[in-house]
Structure formats: C-alpha cells, structure tokens
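*** Query protein ***
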Amino acid sequence: MLNLPEYPPRLTLARTPTPFHYLTRASDQWGGGKRLWIKRDDLTGSALTGNKVRKLEFFAAHALNNGFRTLVTCGGLQSNHCRATALVAAQLGLRCHLVLRADDSDQANTGNFLLDQIAGATYEVLPAVGWNKALQSAYERLEQAYLDAAEPALMIPTGGSDSLGIWGYIAAAEELGRDIATHHIDRAAVVLATGSAGTQTGLTAGVALAGLPLEVVGYAVCDDARWFNAKVNEDWQAARRRWPQLPAVMVEPVTRDHSAGPAYGIAPPEVYKLIVDLARLEGVVLDPVYTGKAFLGLLRDIREGFFDGVDDIIFVHTGGIFGLFAHEHSLIQAAS
C-alpha cells in the first residue's frame, strides 16, 4: 500500500463512513454466482445526501478559506449536485446561484428543484439547445457580477468534477479499503454511475494511490466511454499539477457506455422496472438518471461475462432519490 497524500483543507459535511453490506437476495437472483455488495453513499445525509457531498467538503473549505461569499454551479433542473450545493451554502451562510438546464418541458417545482428553492438559491434556467456556449457566457457574466457586488463567487463546474472535487472520492477509496478488509474481500470490481467523471476519477485515483485490490468501472449515463476516459485522465493530470503531493501513479479508467439509454435524464422502461424490483427485493431505491442505469448495465455485464475474473462486485450507490419525483408516472406504471 502506498503512502496516501496530505489532503487539501476539508470540512465535515457528509455522514461517513457510509454503510457497506451484502445484497443477499439480489446476489441470488442476478449475481450469476457472484457476490453483490453495496456502498451506501446515498446515506451521506438526509436532504444533504449523495456522492456530491463528499466533493463539497473540499469546495466549501476552499471557499471559506479564500474569501468567496457565493457558490455558483450548474446542472440539469433535477441536478443532485445543485441541490447539495444550495444546501451547503445555506448551512455555511453563503449565497448560492444555480445555472440550470431545461432538459425537457417539465419544470414542475418538485424533487431537487423544489429543494433548491427552499434552500434559498437563486437560479436561472437556460435551454438545453446551445447549453455549453450559453453556460460559459453565464459563468463569465456571473463571476464578474458577484465580484462587482463584493460577493465573490467560487465557480464550481458540473457535478463538482475537477481537480479539487476528485479529492472527495480519493478519501472515499480509503474508506472502501477499510470496508473490504472488514468483510475479508480479497479482490473486487467497484462499479458506479458516471455523469461528469469526478466520482469516477477520484475512486480510480484513490484505489491506485492506496494500492487496493479493486478495479473501478464507470457506467456512462451520457456521452461515451472515450469521453469519460479522457476526462478522468484530464482531471487527474490537472490534480497532479495543482497538488504536488500527489505521486505519479498510473490511473487507467474503465468505462462502459451501453447504459446511457435514450439520452441523459431519460430512461427506458427496463430501468424503471429494475428500480421497482430492487426496492422490493432489498429495500434499496435507485434513481432513473444515474444509479438505475448503472445497475442495469452491471447486470447485463454479469450475464455477458464481463466480470468473469472476479467473485465480488461492489456497487457504489451515489444517491439521487429526490430526482425520482420528476418520474412519478413511469415509476407508478412500472410498479403496477
């Protein structure tokens, strides 16, 4: 095991360590002779929950230590990251502004979007068409406007996925190391949904830094494997430039790109059925944007032999439960 690097400043926001346990009935039904485990990062808190909280421990510390008074971030209307950022800002007495993407015509005040507003975040909603260019313009405008108002803003990227955000899951990899030691797991695959690559980068780098007998596999919920593998390497190299204490370990991302479905935020009927089936089988609730798609991809890969080299598979549940409420009709139909 390598000596782990010194961490940047960090706040304690997440309820960790999160539970780690064996999915007995899911293993019997879908495991094909493999043991399925779950890392419950959906339980990092109550309203402030999910994988994004681990990243925000580092963003929030950076903001407070460097005089930022506002957190600005972006995502879809039902973004888990935006909701978590809004709640962290409220908890710390900071302002929060969200740049939200209108992924479809439904802008109902429900789920994460409702919690954004309860937390006091201001927001603007931009069309999905031309999103990248419009987002860049919005970030430039907002950064200058908050600076002019003497409320300087920390501009946080999509999903909190950059060289600072990855530290949240470098730390989580240490936690996973203790989990597998406790449960006497000698070697395993660690699988997760990946949507902006920050969690995937942190886990992949953290496993390499700690010398753990784990292979991290990301299931793309948008874009494709080529994009995610490039983004993981880009963020890791940026982190090494920014944090000289990081050693030159090899980070080799593995991404599966057959789980994205029709588009980001849109799931096929089999994802909704799987969400219902797992909830009734194990009392574990997935979401249709991230974890439902990733778990479906995992089960397909088990059947097709992708994981034939391991006996244990650990599913990292990254959260997303509030996003369920924007999918009520599809879920009710699957549950009937």
